[in-house]
């Protein structure tokens, strides 16, 4: 009985942690690892609740009301697991989108730097050509005088 209550409290805490992680928008790999750990814990709690329910059935000592409570707890554990899995999937999707966005921005920055470098080279070449043309014209004018 105490194990089930502790397991249920653990599941509630895990769900609360998942909710906090989602609200804060922490979709980094540490959050995903923690969510995976929470899912594993929720699965273990779910399995313990199943085992406890099975023992209560086979022992015949538990009342039908208690069995119903255990099944309710099992349902709640499964619901918590489902929420955790959806939260993990959402976090992974968000992390992937953020990674993709960073890659696009980096590519645009690299392209911009390349274009800027090319424009700078063209501007330097144009200045050098203009200086050369002006110098040649001045020399020609000077020779004529």
Which characteristics define this entry?
mainly alpha; 145 residues
Describe, in plain words, how this protein is organized in 3D.
This protein is mainly alpha-helical and 145 residues long. The chain has one domain (2-107). The protein is built from three helices and no strands. The chain has helices at 2-24, 29-59, 64-144. The longest helix is centred in the last third of the chain and has 81 residues, at 64-144. The protein is rod-shaped. The model has no long low-confidence stretch (mean pLDDT 79).
Indicate the mean pLDDT.
Answer: 79
Biggest pleated sheet: none
Tell me the number of helical segments per DSSP (H or I, 4 or more residues long): 3
The tally of strands reads 0
The secondary-structure class comes to: mainly alpha
Shape: rod-shaped
Distance between the termini: 112 Å
- Radius of gyration of CA atoms, rounded to a whole number: 34 Å
Strand and helix map with partners:
Elements: H1 2-24, H2 29-59, H3 64-144
Helix pairs in contact: 1-2, 1-3, 2-3
Summarize the structure.
With 145 residues, this protein is mainly α. It has three helices and no strands.
